[in-house]
Amino acid sequence: APSVSITFLGGLGDIGRNCAAIESGRDLLLLDCGQLFPDESMPGADSVLPDLSYLDDKGDRIVGCITTHGPEDHIGALSHALRRFEFPIYGSAFTNGMVRSRLDEAGVLGRTELVPVADNQRLTIGSFDCEFLPVTHSVPSGLISVIRTPQGTILHSSDFKLDPSPVDGRLTDMPRIEEISATEGIRLLLCDSTNADVPGETASESEIGPVLETVFAENAGRRIITASFSSHIHRVQQIATAALNHGRKIATLGMSMKRNVALARELGLLRIPDTAFIELEDAGQYPPGEVCIVSTGSQAEPRSALALAAMSDSRWIQIGETDTVVLSSTPVPGNEARVYRMIDDLVRRGARVRHSGHMGLHTSGHGKQEELRALHRAASPAWFVPVHGEFHHLVAHA
Fold this sequence. Notes:
Layout: E1 4-10, E2 12-13, E3 19-24, E4 27-31, E5 62-66, H1 72-75, H2 78-84, E6 89-91, H3 93-106, E7 114-116, E8 122-125, E9 128-135, E10 142-149, E11 152-156, H4 174-183, E12 188-192, H5 208-218, E13 223-227, H6 233-245, E14 249-253, H7 255-266, E15 291-295, H8 305-310, E16 323-327, H9 336-348, E17 352-355, H10 369-379, E18 383-387, E19 389-390, H11 391-397
Parallel strand pairs: 2-19, 4-5, 5-6, 6-7, 11-12, 12-18, 13-15, 13-16, 14-15, 16-17
Antiparallel strand pairs: 1-3, 3-4, 8-9, 9-10, 10-11
C-alpha cells in the first residue's frame, strides 16, 4: 500500500496555528489551518502562521482542508493559504459560517468552496475516506475526524472534553469510536493535550449557569457587562438565560460577538427571543439593572471592546460605579499580566469585577487526565502523537 505521511506545520509546542498536512500518493489533505496571536516578544506582528511554505510546490495536490471547529487557532490562516492555493473547505455549518465571514473580509471567498458536513457523515475527500463525529468543546459543532488511509485509520480528537451534560445536549460519540476501534482498528491517534497535566475531569459547561444566576442576583440594580470568547455560544446562551430570568435586555458589544450571535441564532444553536435584544446605542434608555451587555475582550486583547472601555477609550460604553463586569473566562497562558492590568483599569473606573479566580465562572473546553484516559481507552490506537499544546503539555500527555 502507498505510504502515508503527516507533517505538522504548526500547533505542536504552542497553543495556536494548528495545521497538519496528511499525504498519500498525490493527495494532500490539510487538517485545520489556524493562526497564533503574537506575544510581547513579537512587536509589530499581527499573527503567527503555520509554515505554509511547505505547501509551495504542492499546491496542486491539496484536495481540501478539514476545519475541526471555528476559533482563530484553527481557521485563522485559511485566508493566507487561499491567497496562494485553491482548495475546498469541509466543516460543520457553524464552523463554515465563521470561516465564510473571515474569508469574505479577506476577499478570498471566491477561491474556495465551503462544504457542509453533518454529524456522523462519511464522505470522500480526494483518496481519503473521512467520517466526522460530534464532540463536546466550548465551541458548538466541533468534529472528531476519522480519516481512512492506505496505511490504516487516523483519528483526530479535535479540541475536546467529555461533557456529560452539554448545554445543547450534543454528546461526544464515544460508542462510534469504540466500534471503529473494535472493527477496523485505529492506527494513529492525534489527541488534544491542553489539559494533559491536570488530574481529574473538566467541569461540565452546564455547571456555569447556576453561578451566573448567583452573580445576576447579587448585582440587581447594576448594569452587568459579561466578557467571553465570541465563539463560546454555550456560554452566551447561559448568560442570556440568566439575564432574561432577571428581567434584563441584552446588547452585544464587539464585531465578532455580534456576528457569531447572529450566526448561531440563524442556525438554531442559540435560543434567545428577538424581543430580548436591544441595540447598544439604545441601552442608555434603560435603567442599569435592566441591561446586560455581552462583550468580547475577556483576554484584554489590545483593540478589543472591553480593553478599550477599561481605558475610557470606547466609543460605545463608559465604565462607571453602577457597572459589574463579569469575566467568564480564564487568562490564556501568557495573557495573565494583560488581563490583570485590565481588571485594575476597570476597578479604577469604579466597576465591580467578578472573574473565575473568585468563583466558578468558567470551565475549560479541554479534557483533563481522566477524559484523555477515556478517549485513549476507547480508541486503543497502535500509535499516538500528542497534539495541541505547549511542549510541556505534549510531554505530560505522552
